[in-house]
């Protein structure tokens, strides 16, 4: 991607002035984060890091990403409904066995229970959702897993109650990583999953999003098995896949490890859970593979072909740093909305995008990426 | 004023939860302040202190305040145009002599020069105005007095130029207190006043807002002299006046001082400039009057009958403090817009309100008021 802001990058004084204006505007528009020092308090806050300029994105790619989102919604649903596939895939990654509770009930109110962390720098993103719902007269209560295990309960119809109020929807903003679960939290999650409240996401949908499932989906015949008769959707999905390689014990895994050790710059080693920041590259990856290659532990990782986007220049704005024009790469995500009641599809659509951009820094001869900041696509 | 939120004041846990929601909402809506520690930086910011609940204001009083605002606009304009009145009034308060420049010109652009302080906690209030103007394609440049003296200039038609750009409007957010003027700043102000740019406010309008002028306006016959033939406006204005007493040398001043020394709880002693926080009450006032009464310095103060509003309860929210339900008093201000070209009145209207509320704290047997926070009137 080229940029058309080149001339603005030259004039440092103008760049600083634009940066000051942009930061004040971002703050005033609510692009906020709590501080690292005080993640439980809104006494002082800061802005979410962002790019001073939008980044150029080819129209065709943006349209492709939007178009394929509905296919991904269908695929994730198909995976989450396929208990056999999930169990087979994830048992190899050392998760426990899976039971999915299916139970429908109607609700006497429209209360949303937001499962929140105490330390939450990103609370303003959550508050925006609370405010949108409140404007539609839908109330949200924020509780921690600990509150659920102390004060949550089910009645004989598995209706969920919290502090005496019936809950219609449980929205998880905690519990995405194993490290976020104490024994007490697992019990609270179990209670929520057993209830007939709508879970966003339920445990099966959450597990469908693991890297291990992603890797399994790239194997020949898998999409055809999960989405029978939908050859066009499958073609659109497959066009977006990068190479993903299982490290399960066996010949296939041995071969993938051998390839990665031969050409480490072409691969990245990822733990099979969500959450970023745990990926291994270059020499670190080689050391990990050497350590893991004869152990069953290797099955909890996957190897991925490294995507090598063309870097471009942008100016990253972060609290405490002056405006920096650097070489960047971006990652585009599309939000999807999907509602199914029993066998009836109620809604399948996209709902906006998220472009995240990070500086590429050359370290140890490889490319180590910094933490991504918010960006906006400028379609060209 | 009574309140109808009484029941909410009882439940401390609910109050804390409401306070957290309100603070996050205020932050997300841009009710921001830079911190005391870093008033020149937007790296971390806080919220402007505010009341958790609106405060009850009788409809009739709110309407009266709005109705009289246009009269005040006319009065301030009349005072600012009356150089003789201003000079006579303010020379007794030891200001220099006054010359008002009148000069009209047309502008080739609509650039606004905002005179800003480097340390400005309240920048987000200013940015909101910048953004509103920018949405109308009117650009604002922020400069300090120091920048004006270094890079500002007038051409032979007294057009004002800043960094090579012609300025149509100068908007002062610095220079309201004598302490904000160095010699360099006075020279910059003089340059701006001499220019044909529209000043918001010009020096005469600014001087019309001093306490000394306010006191002079309360003297018999003054309103009639300034607004000839406008008896209805005068009646509306006078209905809002509290007792104001000159301390000029002479019998009238001696009598005012004697009254204040006899009944100190009924009076407050104010320096004749704007800016708050310098008022003297009770024993402090008595000591100051004893010290000043035989000195010409007393003319730079005025005595004011203390307004004794009925206290009411509200909950004040401030960064770093937990929600506090306290006895409060309020002050209502109405924003006015007034534009005149030569002798033609172009616009005279009101433009919203500002309700500020502060806790009353009982100290030294008197009432000392804390610093006011933002509030909203709830008309009843």
Automatic annotation (TrEMBL), chains A, B:
Top-level enzyme category: ligase
Residues binding Mg(2+), per UniProt: 274
MF annotations from Gene Ontology: ATP binding; glutathione binding; glutathione synthase activity; magnesium ion binding
Taxonomic superkingdom: Eukaryota
Residues annotated to bind ATP: 211, 270-279, 281, 304-307, 331, 358, 364
Protein residues bound to substrate: 126, 356
Keyword ATP-binding: yes
Catalytic activity: gamma-L-glutamyl-L-cysteine + glycine + ATP = glutathione + ADP + phosphate + H(+)
Magnesium recorded as keyword: yes
Cross-referenced InterPro entries: Glutathione_synthase (IPR005615), Glutathione_synthase_a-hlx (IPR014042), Glutathione_synthase_C_euk (IPR014709), Glutathione_synthase_N_euk (IPR014049), GSH-S_sub-bd_sf (IPR037013)
Cofactor(s) essential for the protein: Mg(2+)
Record pathway: Sulfur metabolism; glutathione biosynthesis; glutathione from L-cysteine and L-glutamate: step 2/2
SUPFAM superfamilies: Glutathione synthetase ATP-binding domain-like
Subunit details: Homodimer.
Family membership noted in the UniProt record: Belongs to the eukaryotic GSH synthase family.
NCBIfam families: glut_syn_euk
PANTHER family hit by this protein: GLUTATHIONE SYNTHETASE
Protein name from the UniProt record: Glutathione synthetase
Source organism (scientific name): Dipodomys ordii
Gene name of the encoded protein: Gss
């Amino acid at each position: 991607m080229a940029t058309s802001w080149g001339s603005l990058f030259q004039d440092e004084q103008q760049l600083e002035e634009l940066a000051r204006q942009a930061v004040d505007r971002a703050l005033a528009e609510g692009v906020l984060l709590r501080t690292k020092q005080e993640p439980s308090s809104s006494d002082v806050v800061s802005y979410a890091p962002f790019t001073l300029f939008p980044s150029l994105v080819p129209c065709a790619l943006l349209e492709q990403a939007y178009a394929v989102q509905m296919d991904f919604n269908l695929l994730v649903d198909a995976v989450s409904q396929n208990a056999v596939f999930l169990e087979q895939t994830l048992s190899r990654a050392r998760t426990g066995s899976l039971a999915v509770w299916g139970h429908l009930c109607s609700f006497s109110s429209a209360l949303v229970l937001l499962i929140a962390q105490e330390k939450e720098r990103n609370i303003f993103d959550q508050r925006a959702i609370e405010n949108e719902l409140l404007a539609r007269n839908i109330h949200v209560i924020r509780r921690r897993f600990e509150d659920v295990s102390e004060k949550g309960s089910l009645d004989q119809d598995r209706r969920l109650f919290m502090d005496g109020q019936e809950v219609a929807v449980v929205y998880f903003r905690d519990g995405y990583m194993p490290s976020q679960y104490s024994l007490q939290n697992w019990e609270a999650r179990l209670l929520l999953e057993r209830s007939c409240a709508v879970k966003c996401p339920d445990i099966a949908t959450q597990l469908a999003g693991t890297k291990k499932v992603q890797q399994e989906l790239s194997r020949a015949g898998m999409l055809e098995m999960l989405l029978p008769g939908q050859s066009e959707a499958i073609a659109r999905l497959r066009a977006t896949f990068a190479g993903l390689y299982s490290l399960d014990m066996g010949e296939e895994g041995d071969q993938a490890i051998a390839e990665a050790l031969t050409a480490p710059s072409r691969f990245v080693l990822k733990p099979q859970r969500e959450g970023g920041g745990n990926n291994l590259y270059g020499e670190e990856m080689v050391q990990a593979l050497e350590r893991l290659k004869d152990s069953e532990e290797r099955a909890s990782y996957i190897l991925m072909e490294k995507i090598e986007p063309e870097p471009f220049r942008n100016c990253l704005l972060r609290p405490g740093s002056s405006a920096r024009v650097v070489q960047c790469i971006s990652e585009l995500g599309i939000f999807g909305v999907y509602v199914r009641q029993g066998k009836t599809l109620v809604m399948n659509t996209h709902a906006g995008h998220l472009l995240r951009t990070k500086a590429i820094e050359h370290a140890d001869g490889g490319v180590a990426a910094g933490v991504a900041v918010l960006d906006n696509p400028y379609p060209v």
